[in-house]
Amino acid sequence: MILPWQASTLWVLAACIGVQAVTTPEGVRQIPPYLDSDMQSRYFEFGEDTIVRADQYIRLTSDRQAQSGWLFSKMPITATNWMIEVEFKIHGQGHLHGDGMAVWITEERGKPGKVFGSTDNFNGLGIFIDTYKNSRPGVTFPYVMAMLGNSSVSYDKDHDGKDNELAGCSARGLRSGTIPTKIRMTYYAEVSLRVDLQWKSADEWTECFETEQIKLPQTAYLGFSAETGELSDNHDIINVAAHNLHIRQNTGASANRGGKPQAKPYNPGGTKAPGSWRWFFLKIILFGIVVVGGYVGYTMYRTSKRGSRF
Ligand SMILES: [Ca+2]
Question: What sections of the protein cross the membrane (predicted)?
Answer without folding.
Answer: 277-301
